[in-house]
Amino acid sequence: MKKIREITEYEFTQFNVAKDGPIGIFASEEQWFADSENKILGIILKDKIDKDWSYVILGIDEDDTYRAIDVKVSEESIESVQKKLINSMSILTVENGEAKETIFEFDDIIDDSKKLVVTDIDDEIKKYFKKYPEKLYDLSPRKFEELIASIMEDMGFSVELTQATRDGGRDIIANIKTKIWNFLAHIECKKYDPNNKVGVGIIREVVGVHHLRKATKSMIVTTSFFSKDAEKEAEMAENILDLKNYNDIRDWLKDY
User: Fold this and answer.
1) Which DSSP symbol is given to 138?
2) Which residue has the higher pLDDT, 20 or 156?
């Protein structure tokens, strides 16, 4: 019978894991797991900002490369995320890159001695959302902000996440500096359900903060869409405000 076992960082590095982007800035790897046939790998990560826990499960694809097939975020403790990771790995097997259910036996091994190692798993998470964009709705609002900040960084911006609940109409401050100019962008993130549209009040709030903080451009990014009144209001500020909805995020994710 197959089992789930904890492996060392060195053992994990021997697998051909797809990691082709910049080093991640929001999460760090803590523990690594594999099934007995080495077809599924698991990684436990710690958020460096909110200090909560996540996992990524990777399956071996047709080209013998491991890619993300399942992601879980915003767990409060390492014990909780370990249990969910091992349970998820225990019911998954992979055929031609697709996850299918099976039943494994597993050893629930816990080792608190693992060192903190910063890696670039963020790109694999973005590839996962590219394949399953509907999973964006499972993110917490803060994790959605971190995802958008990471995408902005990939586009060439230097990014800063504002304090949760104290953003003042700007969740992300992003800028690009050159010898000629400094482009400063304020980004407000709204992780809404698809039927909960962003209203006109948010437009007015962001435009007000834009003028107060003297940004070059402001943007509202949402997993939902904008009401007709909100779009009409935004037209009056089209030179300073961009609206990005669920479909725009899907377009961004196509680059991964």
Assistant:
1) G
2) 156
Q: Which residues pair with 40 in a beta bridge?
A: 59
Tell me the two tokens of residue 1.
Answer: 């019978």
Structure tokens at 90: 């225990």
Q: Largest alpha-carbon pair distance within the chain?
A: 64
- Is the pLDDT assigned to residue 26 strictly greater than 90? no
Q: What is the pTM of this model?
A: 0.60
* Residue 146: how many other CB atoms lie within 10 Å: 27
| Strand partners of residue 45 | 29, 54
Q: Please, what is the average pLDDT of the chain?
A: 81
Collapsing DSSP to helix, strand or coil, 156 comes out as coil
Torsion sign (Cα): 142, 147, 153, 157: negative
Q: What pLDDT is stored for residue 204 in this prediction?
A: 92
Residue 180's contacts (CB-CB under 8 Å, 6 or more residues apart) are none
Q: Which amino acid, residue 206?
A: V
Residue whose structure tokens are 């903190």: 116
Measured between alpha carbons, how far is 36 from 169 in angstroms, rounded to an integer?
49
